[in-house]
């Protein structure tokens, strides 16, 4: 393994133009988690390239040339001999043993119990980060965001190749059962969906055990390929399912429902800003910390909006809702309501706000 370690040490890291993210690496030791193509490797390489080349060692643990036992035996002495300050283990698995270094960077899809490392959770781009890839900040930017989603790599993929690119990307990252599950989740985006409901559907077309399906469903959730939203005050109620990125919807399903896709977009912005949220019957998102309701109405008209507000007045009154935000594609305005302030805000303004 000494020869392989020398190869890693001497290889110059290459990084295409890097756009700053809302998270960054400083002098501490970190575990960086995120789905495939979320930017973990770029974040690490960008940091390492700011350091003196002789001070760091970057290792992609998925390299099939690595004999883990021999690698673990050789790594400590190699780091000591070459005075390695920063060790980066990309695509890390628990089989790798950490040597004594000043700074340790670990990247993987799954979160591992490594209490001595701080955690950075990296998601695909949010809308504000996406804008760094746009040539101009006008209404076309939001349309591009709807089309491309938050995977930065999609800016370099030709339009006629994007669907198959995403399919291949997911097939390479997920096992067969996980892929079948996420396909169903794409069909039922922004709707109530449980592992049992998925099992009942999949068993009609393939042989599968309930235990295997439940484990695969949980693995997708833990790796953040899917997200589940609880009903407020009802932890055992069926949760709503959202995809890790809206671009996956059209890549895995021919079902067309822009309203549900738009709701998924809003959910991801809430998730990436660490905003506590829940769903309620007739209500897309309830934000208890700000006594606020979010309604996702991309093409809202006031007549239908008034009817919607009437249908949820009991909740508004019972929970002391002070603010109702109606998120749209481009409409803006306010509505008079006896119990709460109602603001109609375009997605781009809302996503870039406080």
List keywords for this structure.
single chain; Putative helix-turn-helix containsing protein; 3 domains; 6-stranded mixed sheet; Arc Repressor Mutant, subunit A; 14 strands; 354 residues; 5-stranded parallel sheet; 14 helices; DUF4143; P-loop_NTPase; alpha/beta
Could you walk me through the main structural features you see in this protein, from its secondary elements to its overall organization?
The chain has 14 helices and 14 strands. By secondary structure, the protein is α/β, with parallel strands linked by helices. It has three domains: 120 residues, no CATH class; 136 residues, Orthogonal Bundle (Arc Repressor Mutant, subunit A); 80 residues, no CATH class. It has a six-stranded mixed beta sheet. Strands 2-3-4-1-5 form a five-stranded parallel beta sheet. Helix 7 packs across helix 9. The termini are far apart. The mean pLDDT is 94. InterPro entries: DUF4143 (IPR025420), P-loop_NTPase (IPR027417).
